[in-house]
Write a structure and sequence with these properties.
heterodimer; A: 59 residues; 2 helices; 53% helix; elongated; B: 717 residues; Alpha-Beta Plaits; Rossmann fold; 7-stranded mixed sheet; 6-stranded antiparallel sheet
Chain lengths: 59, 717
Amino acid sequence: MNVLFILVPVSLILSGVALAAFLWTLRASQYDDLAGDAWRILSDEDSPAPKPPRDQTPK
Amino acid sequence: MSYAPALSACPACSAAPLAQSIANKPASVTAVQLSLPGIHCAACIAGVERALLALSGVTSARVNLSLKRVTIEAPGLESETLIDALAVQGYEALPLDADLLNANQDPTGRALLVRLAVAGFAMMNVMLFSVAVWSGASAATQVMFHWLSAGIAVPALLFSAQVFAKSAWNALKVGRLNMDVPISLAIILAAGLSVFETAQGGTHVYFDAALSLTFFLLVGRYLDHRTRVAARSASQELTALETPRAIRIEDGARQHVSVGDLALGDTIAVLPGMRLPVDGTVIDGSSDLDRSLLTGESLPVHVTRGAALAAGEMNLTGPLTLKITATGEDTTLRRMAAMVEVAEGARNRYTALADRAAQIYAPAVHLLALVTFIGWMVIGAEVSYALNIAISVLIITCPCALGLAVPAVMTAASGRLFRHGLLVKDGTALERLAEVDTVIFDKTGTLTTGQARLDAGQLEEDTLPLLATLSQSSHHPVSRALAAALPDDITPAQVEDIRERPGLGVGAKYHGQTVRLGKGSWVGAEASPAFRMGTAPAVPLHYRESLREGAQACIRGFKAAGFTPKILSGDTNHATQKLAKTLGGIAAQGELTPQGKTQHIQSLSDQNHRVLMVGDGLNDTAALRAAYVSISPASALDASRAASDFVLLGTDMAALPEAVRLARSARARVLENFAIAAGYNMIAIPIAVMGFATPLSAAIAMSASSITVLLNALRVR
């Protein structure tokens, strides 16, 4: 049963990483335009450069 | 913005005229949003962004295809410049009022997603530990897994299940029971019992059940929220598209300003084709106005200097200069809309299906748990054992299938309706649409496009050349409609002294006789418009209204589905009956006041009919409110759209019978889902009451019922 002392932390860390990754994608506005992003990968001009943060502009 | 550092870094430069002119520009970065109704693919995205970035002064441009919108940062550029640049490339763009659209981001949706993610990941981990326990971990190992589960589940639940607890608390505070009360109770008891069992070193812990309950219910909550947000942002966009800018004249200079910046006494220019943003008095120019949205009249009205105009009227022919007499909430339109009595309609008494299910479910489940507890006490079980079983009954009756039953179906159905061009604005609108048994239409602007077409067939051959000359000489909408209705091969007659009399018509001399085309009273006829040559009797010209696209198919569809559609109109009886005949002889009533329409609908409701009202004008607003469920076209007045449950975004009316069919299908699926959830409980409850429930059986019942309900929801067609 000693293997549990490795496996349990591993499972906790892995799901923690997955959760953190999901929260990051959410914060990076990756779910705002699902239809558009699906098409954008077909465009030659599409670059991986991050877009400017959206909440910077007060309206 | 990029100019600012250069200016401050080199003070001497500020003297330079170039730098001066730059410094005079407003420094703030303003984001402009444009609506792009036509875009649909990768080439469109790239084309729009390329066209915009090619303009000097545009710092960023980003298309959002889901919203069909582009956000542009272009300090100092007017949105007109950007629209022109896109028009050159062949993309239609419309300005949006940015103030109305700052809800671009959706904080509530994001917060729900975060809670959903936390619940989901915690559920996966705890489930992993639970599988170890179910497959035989015992003694110290079991205790360790229980403590680990508790360590993950308790904080995750505290964070994620807040949504339900808050909503349940709000309902209890006002003495009501909603679905969230049994949900919160089940979660709290499941977690509490599990913590207690863990501390006691017991075998039955329900951390995974509490978490999966939270997870599945949050899925339902998020779907529900998505549907609402999509509807709200689309209807906000409709509002934002309307008269977002006005042209203010200051010291002879014309300036595009936001309507919100207009003040009393300002002078504005209203060009042909613009809708009036405010109330005002004409100080220069003359034109014809379309008042159909306010009154239901289908013929334009002539106005000149001194006339008082109301917001919402459409300028048709000539440029007008107005002095503003009322803005914003004070305009006649808004006051009239506010005065429209909020009819206490059937809709306010409507209880959503989910709430009705909760009203049966919540007391039944709590009573059952209580009975179980008492029953076990009576046959001599220990208090802790009896309590344990009672709580497992609460957990296993799993309201999660019930919580998903409605939102999953409604999300699927509104998605399909949206593809037909119908926007669902109200949460219970689809359920109510499914129960409709009577359909009532407004005429002008709903079944017809509101543009009159003259019936050329009734005219005598020899007057045609003369009519052609007269009608072509005027820009009045009715003249133009007449000119368009006349056969193309007619040579216009030669006349002398042709003159347009504003507000009256066109007059001329033909072979020494006076000929007139125009208003009935001026020509000498009873109806308008009319035509007269010399001393011969005046001939009234009948006009025909052009039907909206799909109007025929719409009426046919409703008839085929067993409805008897009816037209209620504020226009003349004659015009209304004529249209009813064109549409296949349906019942029609004209010359109705707004109150008349409302009363008609009220009396139908009193006879237990469920009325669907389709209308667009201010005269329909009260009727739209009084009806059981209501639909207005996107071209309708803001107040009417606000009063209705659905907005028809497309132009095709044929979508309406289809929507009723879809709503009925959705309702059937919801009821099936309730039946499925009840079926699962039928099996699970006896097991739980007899004390055979284990955390494993709870997990299976919960997941299986949730997934069946979700799959069933996808069958909406």
